[in-house]
């Protein structure tokens, strides 16, 4: 009975569908599920492209979808500008090192008169703090010191005033025998024209009028007399008995101390050694016409 019922239900449904299809024959038919599925069936004549799989690509070569683009990290941009360092007050060598450490180069170096120490940096071009390209040249201006003025021929006080005006100081004072007036400057040390740092001391040599007495002690009587005469002095000799024969005819002493200043033509008495047997004649002594002075003594 069940089979009869099923047959009764199916047959009208099939026949009703057939009629419906005929009634709709004038309209374009939509593709049926059967035709769509038949296109995918193996028996269809249309070629079917197989789906790509991991096994179909070369080993070790990723697919286009699997490739991940490499992202390069942003590189640090090189610094192309730097600031000129402060160089004023440094000596030339230290300033050059500072310029190189900043990535710059030392340019033209010029010297200027200045009371600052010789070689000390007075300024730079470009000035400190200026931003410039790396590798730029920095010109330096350094101190050339001050020039020692010429004070020879001036009295002591005038010479000291000239040194002070030049930014210098009067240093040690020595005296030398001269035919120039007492106290007149004969020379300086350093010499005139030399360059020194500001505030440096300049030594003065002052004149002490007279002729320097040479040392003749230990010379023979003849040599001692010759040296004194050459210096412009008058010589007198006196004898002194000695026990040591090696001292015979040798100058034992002189009346004016060596190095002192005396007037030209003044008499210098020398004492000459003689043996007891020889007892040479003693020349008369004469007091010098002018007092001898020591050039190293103070004013």
Could you give the topology of this structure?
Layout (H helix, E strand, L loop, with lengths): L1 H22 L9 H7 L41 E3 L8 H10 L3 E8 L8 E5 L5 E3 L3 E7 L2 E2 L8 H10 L3 E10 L6 E5 L5 E2 L4 E9 L1 E2 L8 H10 L3 E8 L9 E4 L6 E2 L4 E8 L25
Parallel strand pairs: 2-5, 7-10, 12-15
Antiparallel strand pairs: 1-4, 3-5, 6-9, 8-10, 11-14, 13-15
Describe the structure.
With 299 residues, the protein is an alpha/beta fold. Among the domains are: 63 residues, 2-Layer Sandwich (Trypsin Inhibitor V, Chain A); 63 residues, 2-Layer Sandwich (Trypsin Inhibitor V, Chain A), CATH 3.30.10; 63 residues, Trypsin Inhibitor V, Chain A, CATH 3.30.10. The chain contains five helices and 15 strands. The strands form six sheets. The protein has a three-stranded mixed beta sheet with strand order 2-5-3, with helices on one face. 17% of the residues are buried. The N terminus is likely disordered.
